[in-house]
Design goal:
Elements: E1 3-10, E2 14-21, E3 27-30, H1 35-45, E4 51-53, H2 59-62, H3 65-72, E5 75-78, E6 90-91, E7 97-100, E8 103-109, E9 118-122, E10 127-131, E11 134-135, E12 138-139, H4 147-158, E13 165-168, H5 173-183, H6 187-201, E14 209-210, H7 211-217, H8 223-226, H9 237-249
Parallel strand pairs: 3-4, 4-5, 5-6, 10-13
Antiparallel strand pairs: 1-2, 2-3, 7-8, 8-9, 9-10, 11-12, 13-14
Helix pairs in contact: 4-9, 5-6
The structure holds zinc ion (ZN) and fe (iii) ion (FE).
Fe (iii) ion (FE) binds next to α2.
């Protein structure tokens, strides 16, 4: 493994991630939910921050940029929309690559939760950081994008290799599981949700997940198969996704 990932809970339900490239010792933070928590993790690991990689502009993802920049001098890289709340040193778009020592992250368009949301994929280690686009058994709320854009983003992520380890930015999985079970009784989903509820009872994280697990059980990726359960028939895949997204938004679980 060229990349070591250090995952830690912060704020109410976010995960912070620090990653270190073994060859160079260079360290990046994926988003900056909580500058103090990130500083504590850096000290605990004995790591020095070189780079901040933002997925989108929301304050629980970019809110710590300024404080960490001031404390560490790290270079801040992200989509243009992040400049709404903090200055960027380098603006990136889908298709770009970002190097961390010998690790190379491919930038993927994951828009829909916000318009400019991106994901970072390290093809060598098969690791993806997806922010608030894809969650374990869920996806982000569609605050800025439309169903065609969001469905396209989810399809791009689903096309990553099955074994890709997916780091999403929130521990929302138990609530996502309750919603998924309201729509779907597939045995793979039922088995997975039992493991999820058991893990959460013990306070264990359900992140990371994998592309294979999400393709098999995530109700948003399975929307075309599930939309009929919401009374939606003859819809396009994006319309099926929109129906599942709307059902989740109104779900009282
Ligand atoms: Zn967000
Ligand atoms: Fe978030």
């Amino acid at each position: 493994m060229a990349l070591t990932v250090r995952q830690f809970p912060c704020l109410s339900d976010n995960y912070g991630f620090l990653v270190r490239d073994a060859a160079s010792g260079r360290v990046a933070a994926i988003d900056t939910p909580d500058a103090e928590a990130i500083q504590r993790e850096l000290s605990a690991a004995g790591w020095t921050l070189d780079l901040i990689l933002n997925t989108h502009w929301h304050p629980d993802h970019a809110g710590g940029n300024a404080a960490l920049k001031a404390a560490t001098g790290a270079e801040i890289v992200g989509p243009a929309e992040v400049a709404r709340i903090a200055p960027l040193d380098r603006t990136i778009v889908a298709g770009d690559r970002v190097a961390l020592g010998e690790t190379s992250f491919e930038v993927i368009d994951a828009g829909g939760h916000t318009l400019g949301h991106i994901a970072y994929f390290d093809a060598t280690d098969r690791i993806a950081f997806v922010g608030d686009s894809l969650f374990a058994l869920g996806c982000g709320r569609m605050f800025e994008g439309d169903p065609v854009q969001f469905w396209g983003s989810l399809q791009r992520l689903a096309a990553l290799p099955d074994e890709t380890v997916v780091y999403c930015a929130h521990e929302y999985t138990a609530a996502n599981a309750r919603f998924a079970l309201s729509l779907d009784d597939d045995p793979a989903l039922v088995a997975r949700t039992e493991a999820i509820f058991a893990a959460r009872e013990c306070g264990e994280p359900t992140v990371p997940t994998t592309i294979a697990a999400e393709k098999a059980t995530n109700p948003f990726l399975r929307a075309p198969k599930l939309a009929h359960r919401l009374g939606v028939v003859g819809a396009s895949d994006a319309e099926a996704f929109a129906a599942v997204r709307a059902a989740k938004d109104g779900f009282q679980g």
